[in-house]
Amino acid sequence: MKITQGLIMAVKSVLSNKLRTILSMLGILIGVATVIALVAMGKASSNEVASQVSTLGSPDSLSVTIMGRGTVTSLSVDEALQLGELSNVSGVAPITSTNGYAKYGRTQVSVTVEGITPEYEEVKDFSVQDGRYIAAPDINNKTKVALIGTQTAQDLFEDERVDPADAVGRKITINGYIFTIVGLLESKGDSLTGSNDEKILIPISTAQKIFQVSGVTTINMKVTDTKLMSSVVSSVEAKLYEKFRGNENAYRVLNQEEAMKTLNSVNETMNRQLIYVAAISLIVGGIGIMNIMLVSVTERTREIGIRKSLGAKKRDILFQFLVEAVVISGLGGMLGIIIGNIASYIIGEVMKTPTEVPMNTMLLSFGFSAFVGVVFGYLPANKAASLRPVDALRHD
Amino acid sequence: MTGQSALIEMKDIVKYYKMAGEKMTVLHNISLTVNHGDFLAIVGPSGSGKSTLMNIIGCLDVPNEGSYKLDGMEIRGQSDNRLTEMRNKKIGFIFQGYHLLPRLTALENCELPLIYRGLSAKERRARAMEALERVGLGERVGHRQNELSGGQQQRVAIARALATNPPLLLADEPTGALDSKTGMEVLGMMEELNRAGQTIVLITHDMEVAQRARRTVIIRDGVLSEQKRRDSHEDYAGPHNGGQERLIEQA
Questions:
Q1: Which of A244, A306, B29, B100 shows a CA-CA span of 20 to 30 A to A207?
Q2: pLDDT tens for residues A59-118?
Q3: B231, exposed or middle or buried, with CB in 10 Å at 0-12, 13-18, 19+?
Q4: What is the DSSP secondary structure assignment for residue A213, as one 8-state letter?
Q5: For A306, which residue in chain B has the nearest alpha carbon?
């Protein structure tokens, strides 16, 4: 018997009992649709993570956070700047971050106040849209000048009937000290570490003086070459290890790649587990097909006998029933892919993140469902093929 | 093969089943020769072993002892696949219950043995059509089983058996499920086929049906005996008792 003839026969037979076919393919259909939807959801959340992580800074930047634990709790500005002497480091921007109150007229807002050095502009890639940046003389003289974020400017000036764009040159008070706004920061939106536009930047020396802090809270660094990131990270870690006398909990070194890895690994673990669960439903679907096929073999015992008496060989019968199982599971897989794609589109709309179903996922789940058909179709097909024609013909 | 060469050559065929450890012999040393062009009826009551004999002749079953040559080829000891091939090439089956596949049309049913022979769709169609026309069903090729009368169904079955041009037509109670008029028509068709050179072996319990054959053998309790052509029923009834009354009645 020719293969195409076998396929035609199997498809005809599968289509001749539509309700049963649909019911038996349901397990595979749901399984495949679930896998597709979950993969799409996983892709969506990893896209989300990637876009959030990218707001942390460019791939060539890394940050050191001083946790303030252990015997040595802080790092001075000078010590922080020494990190810039390490090889392959192109810039260091130490920051002291505190919460303060800014006031203009009768409006008062709570805001993050960061003490910075002029390197902040280059290292954080964060410039002003109006006015000037904090310069070296500001640091040396501990001048009371400030850069203001767009959101903070709006919060502070809007109720006072002042256009936030006209912020430069105005005087505000921060924790009671009068500061002159010399620059309006560009708008950067939100990032994982909070809003970039809700903050005030002042010279680091001024911050240390008015908030009475000695150390830095964060050090942002830039490396000359992204490829050298890991070597820079390890030399920074070695230096900090020495400074904090071996207390690794006192600091944390983070770069974009690392952050992405951490967040994605959580994401991936969860996704993988969900997909395993969905894959189990594919196996359950396969058992459903096996069940139906076994019933079908019993029902069609006489047909098998007739076919055998007319010249169907063992392999012809085996092939016929195997193909029927594969057609059912393959059809289920195909419909599952379609429904999974629809689900993925809906998920994308609801989560407001573009979802995507990779082509190889679709091919893989189709292949797997066909494979399930072969595996679970084999037992019934073999049962059919092994029937003796004499017995099969006698069957009612 | 000439008209007088043997198509079926059986020698000392023994068939037994083991049931609960006990050997139950169904066929005792059966020897039978059927020449090309013969029309043989095998008659016997139920339980006589005629179905087992038919299964062996039809290569659906194999004997335990003895030799069976079909068209010169020894059947005993052949693999299942080889037996299947023999069925497909050498034998056309006509069953009592027609055994058509209900989901297929008359034409598709006739194509079935040709599919397993691996013929192209075009050739299959042509040969199936030709066979259906031979049995006078050229107009009903697209009908399914439930749209055909019993006689028509049996004619489709005959067409299916003829489609492969087999040397042997093996009919198992071909009139069993038909009323007597339709049964006679089917038998008439078989006589006609035989006149055209077709070798036919007919298995029946009905003496009247068997009379239509050119030659009759009787099987009882697994033993075969030849009946002379157009002999009285005495010979058929034989010296043994049991079962013959019913056969005579039916005859």
A1: A244
A2: 788 888 888 776 777 888 888 888 888 888 888 999 999 999 999 988 899 999 999 999
A3: exposed
A4: -
A5: B99
